[in-house]
Amino acid sequence: MTNWTPDLAGRTGPLYRVIADALADDIASEALPIGARLPTHRDLAFRLGVTVGTVTRAYAEAEKRGLIGGEVGRGTFVQSPRAALIPAPFASSFTPSAPLPGGVVMGGGGGSTVNMTTLRPEHALAVQALANTLGAIGASGQTAAFLGYAPHAGLPAHREAGAAWLERQHRVQTTADAVLLATGAQNAMAVALCAVARPGDIVVTERLTNIGAKTLAANQGYHLEGVAIDEHGLVPDAFDSACRRLGPKALYLVPTMHNPTAVVMPQERRIEIAAIARRYGVIIIEDDVFGFMVPDALPIQTIAPDITLYVTSLSKSVSAGLRVGYVVAPPELRSRVEAAIRALQYSAPTLTAEVASRWIQEGTADRIVDAQRAEDLARQRLARSILPTETVYGHPSAQHIWLVLPEPWRREDFIAETRRRGVVVTGADAFAVGRTSAPHAVRVGLCMPGSRDEAARGLRAIADSLEAPVSAMLSIV
Q1: Cα 317 from Cα 360, distance rounded (Å)
Q2: Can you tell me whether residue 457 is helix, strand or coil?
Q3: Structure confidence by residue, pLDDT tens digits, 413-450
Q4: Which CATH class is domain 149-362?
Q5: Cβ(79)–Cβ(87) under 8 Å?
Q6: For 1-79, CATH number?
Q7: Cβ neighbours of residue 236 closer than 8 Å, sequence gap 6 or more
Q8: For 426, phi and psi rounded to 5 degrees?
Q9: Which of 25, 52, 150, 316 is deepest in the core (most CB within 10 A)?
């Protein structure tokens, strides 16, 4: 861990932002190298004489700027600012070194760390589309309509666009009345849980689950219980047993492109899971952010719409930065979802919802999705051509792969070895629920690197690490 202490002299503004600005300057001057581990929140707070909360806000601001990235249980690390700003993958539209609007350069530097921890695609197509759409909004004479408060569930036109999008890209047959706007999938998940559970209530999920679900449960006081999974996802018998023993209020799951294993649950199992939830009166919270990638995987919401709160967003398909999410709620739960939105955020931002809705109506969003699908498939093929076949698991169109480590590798040693070679991946322990023992595996995000060349560089380093058995034994020397 670095002994970095920022120089705050002469800086003005909110203290958390001053710290983030100092961090940005030190990265730009290379006083903080790429890959450096930052002090803990408590340690830096002590050095600066500020509260831990101030440092937490400063790190969050820096992460939002793409300067740093956190790894659960390992710390916070400096990442390549060029690669993090716009890691747009579409070489067909822009070359890796081509300047984008605003002077941003796409793709990481040749010697920088390859960050493969995050599933955060960004789109060169979206950059120009955003400039055009904001110009059109400004010229429309309707700008004032997007600066006031919106209804808690969102403006009617935005809910209609959301319903059209869900039918077109996610195969969810719904109406505008059933669609409520959220600020991204994480917020949609928070809203859904708030609508059906209270602090202390039990929520069951896959024993390896989305880090966002773990963070949310810890923050809001839900008791998260992991349920066994296999190569097809959540195990029905284990879910049934958990329902009998625990009496959970809700089941949170990602049946399509499970995060982190990239498994797609078969239709028969989806039907079985829905039947068990109905039998025990458990509300299903279905996270379908990756559903656009698998057209033949029907959401559980289409099987059991009356007991399912369906959540998704445009983050993985269109743009992470728009922060536009959707909750589809059955009639008996809509008022509770709307009340949760009011309590947590009052309403989703109307300007970004307007941008998203125009893209949906004009077909821009569909074009971005088509490009994203093509790029994800290309990167999967790249990964499977470089990595040993027996180590790679998950659906062949996912934005990530689940890498099961061969003997004698242990995940912590492997992560250290890949970091030594300039690549950062996420260990299985980050996804483990409670005291569940995590397998010796890592998640490798394929869409974060700014170009296919950068992704290939990272994948080759991972492949080289797999072939370094001596390093795998260092922890027991």
Answers
A1: 12
A2: helix
A3: 999 999 999 999 999 999 999 887 899 999 999 998 98
A4: alpha beta
A5: no
A6: 1.10.10.10
A7: 269, 272, 273, 276
A8: -115, 125
A9: 316
